[in-house]
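This section describes the prediction task in plain terms. A model, or a person checking by hand, is given the sequence of a single protein chain and must write out its three-dimensional structure as a string of tokens. No templates, partner chains or ligands are provided. The sample shown here is typical of the held-out split.
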Amino acid sequence: MADKTEVPVSIPSAPEYSFDDECPVKEVDLTVPKTDDPTMPVLTFRLWVLGIASCILLSMVNQFFWYRREPLSITSISAQIAVVPIGHLMARSITKRVYLKGSRWEFTLNPGPFNIKEHVLITIFANSGAGSVYATHILTAVKLIYKRKLDFFPAFIIMLTTQVLGFGWAGLFRKYLVEPGEMWWPSNLIQVSLFRALHENEKRPKGGTTRTQFFLIVLMCSFCYYIFPGFLFGMLTSLSWVCWLNPKSVLVNQLGSGLSGLGIGAVGLDWSTIASYLGSPLASPWFATANVAVGFFLVMYVMTPISYWFNAYNAKNFPIYSNELFKIDGSRYNTSSIINSNFQLDKKAYAESGNLYLSTFFAMTYGIGFATLSSTVVHVLLFNGSDMWNRTKKAFQKEKKMDVHTKLMKAYKSVPSWWFHAILVVNIAVVIFACEYYKEILQLRYWGVLLACALALFFTLPIGVIVATTNQEPGLNIITEYIIGYLYPGFPVANMLFKVYGYISMSQALTFVADFKLGHYMKIPPRAMFMAQVMGTLISVIIYQVTAWWMMEAIPDLCDTSVLPSNSQWTCPMDRVFFDASVIWGLVGPRRIFGDLGVYSNINWFFLGGAIAPLLVWLAQKAFPKHRWISSIHMPVLLGSTAMMPPASAVNYTSWIILAFLSGFVIFRYRPNVWKRYNYLLSGGMDAGTAFVSVLIFIALQSRDIKLVWWGNNQDGCPLAHCPTAEGIAVEGCPAFG
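The expected answer:
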């Protein structure tokens, strides 16, 4: 086998390229190996068997858990760990016989030891199964909540084209988001650390552990511990101790509840609570964590209480924290009563029912979403515009500068751009055909498809820059809903489709780019990486839809909260939020809520505020260049910090911020060697242990309706947090005011 430091002769010559063996990002320099062995076999029999099996299994399991009241996401790390012993077993037991020897079709089922590169590609397959197919929301909303007909084939086209469209955008921006060392994609470093721990031979330091031993210890501890928050002591999910001081006070409940209130003092001693919405806190760079913390504090502890207790938009008529839709009297809005037989808004029925109201927190989060969008564009133009322009010019120059990882990747054939372009063109054509052919069902017209694609094309690069450097992704969902809601009001399915093509295709593109960066770090041939991504995507879409379709038939009243018992596991919280958004932006339309016909028109001023915010930071940085902390203020991350609320709640943020601070600031600054050796392994071990025991608990206990009933499993002990406080508003189970 070749020496791991060898670089193949296909590296470009020195006059054409300049090299930099120093990585511009310290975390990358500490974590990613600067060597490569190009002789490792990649497209092996083991890859196909284990990769496809991992993709199918994770797709089935994640779609199954997606509909639960507390949705569980099994990450690819579970498969990443599980396939290691199987891979080594296959390497020892499968015949090494060479078939068709001497011909151009010569192959073997066992090319040698199970290696790290085929392991990476297996994990890429698993990533396809671990990442949800967002368009499943459309299937669920139409069939289960709106209770309208949607056939299997048009649903399949929607789900497939949504995922595949991202390949096109990814191909267009690889040069900007993969090759530059500054685009470092922090979450990938967890995977890199784990791969190294599982494959590199390491001598155990005296009095310490090897990386593999440490990972296994964390995995076992996490596995054993999660039995408590997962089954025995559910209150560990959100320890809202403030509510215990006066559980009969609505005010105290609102202040202390980590699940339905402001979460003051609430903390979650449960890894799934901590990492469920914001990702692993151990993967967040400190400056990004600080921005998230400040943004969360301003929204949750300044804007929300002020707007609520000053009764902005009749805030006291509704819960302080809720994603439900209401009438002015605090009762739930009956959306089915305002839909006509053509699946459009019945304007007369809407006028009779009255305006649709949101909890003030829910309305304000939409305003923050407006500000995040405008700040993203302005921030990237001010802080990254010159770099992107210079990089564009350098792409046409002979002199090109590369870091060591880009240098090593020049040994392999890149993916031709026309592959991505062909996928993009064919996919857009299929989408337009489907929307025109099934226009009565899908409602979106060809011009809407083209406009959605234009939005995704415009925002992929600026948002990609933010994700690649901060590990936080500002969403496009609000602006896509806003635009089509004004242009095409009263058509909820069209609004949902426009969102998935304008927003999710961009998000999927960033997932593909992140995978390419992982392959870049691990020195995977780009064409093999492309193949694994395409195959994994096709397989996962099929399995996700088949599983969802089966569950809709097998589980009575799935997602129907008006019929299901209060303790049912099948309430579909993520799909309910998606449905609410389709009512707000699609059925009723933004004009009747945020426009001249609605009550929340002033929320639109957030667009202007978001655009001004990064300009103020930029001016402050120019005026006070010696104050380096100013450059760490990242307004898109700060403003977008609460983008996952709802369905995320306060305890998800408070717990995440604490751990992210300890990891990204305290340990990284004062114990860098400990951070380098153990940080990402700790994150991976917590993920894997929690995932394994969660599946075990469900199969062994919850699927058989085995429960442990005692006060420690009563959520967070804040039963009145959802109560309104306005005089004359009556809600069952809540005290009356006035």
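For orientation: The chain has a mean pLDDT of 84.
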